[in-house]
Amino acid sequence: MKNEGQAVNCPPLFRGVNYDYWKQRIIAFYDACHIDMWEVVKEGDYIPLGQDGEMIPKTVWTDEQKQRYLLNSKARKSIMCALTEDEYTKVHSFKSAKQMWDTLVFTYKGSTEVKQNKLSLLARKYELFEMEDNESIQAMFGHFQTIVNEFS
C-alpha cells in the first residue's frame, strides 16, 4: 500500500531514487525545524575553531557556537533517520551534516561527466516522447512534465 502522506515531524525517507524530489522535501523539513538548520548543512560551519585551527573546548563555547553545533547534530540525525539502511551505510561515519549531504549529492548528482550523460538521456527521452495507447491527455501531460522537470 502506498503512503498517502507523512508525519510532519519526521524527515522524508530517501530510498536511493528520485534524489531531486527528496532533496526539496528535506530542505523544506530543515526550514520547518529551524531557520538556520539548512544553512548549517549547506555551509558546514559547526565546530568552533580557534585561530590555530584547533577545536575550542566545549566548556568555553559561546551560546551561538553551541546552537550551531546542536543544529548540526539535529541535521545529522534527520539525515540518518531519512535514509534506508543501504543509503545510511554511505554516510554514517561523518560527524558533519555537510559531509553527509555532500556525499549524497556526489553519489546521486554525480560528476560533470555523469551530468552530461543524464542530460543526453533526457534529451533522447524528450525527442522520443509520444502519447501511449489508451493514455489520457492528463496522464500524457504528466509524463511529459516529468521529463521536462528533470532538465532543471
Question: What this model shows, in words?
Answer:
It holds the Pfam family Retrotran_gag_2. It comes from Flemingia macrophylla. This is DUF4219 domain-containing protein. The chain is mostly helical and 152 residues long. It has 2 domains: 19-109, no CATH class; 113-150. Helix content is 61%, strand content 0%. It has 7 helices and no strands. α2 crosses α5. It is elongated, with a radius of gyration of 20 Å. The model has no long low-confidence stretch (mean pLDDT 86).
Please give the alpha-carbon distance between the first and last residues: 30 Å
Query: Could you estimate the helical fraction of the residues in percent?
Result: 55-70%
Number of strand elements: 0
Give the structural class. Answer: mainly alpha
Contiguous low-pLDDT stretches (5 residues minimum) are none
Could you describe the largest sheet, including whether it forms a barrel? none
* CA-atom Rg in angstroms: 20 Å
Look at the structure and give the mean pLDDT. 86
Percent strand? under 5%
**What number of structural domains do the residues give?**
2
Structure annotation, total helices:
7
Apparent shape: elongated
Strand and helix order:
HHHHHHH
Structure at a glance:
With 152 residues, the chain is mainly alpha-helical. The chain contains 7 helices and no strands.
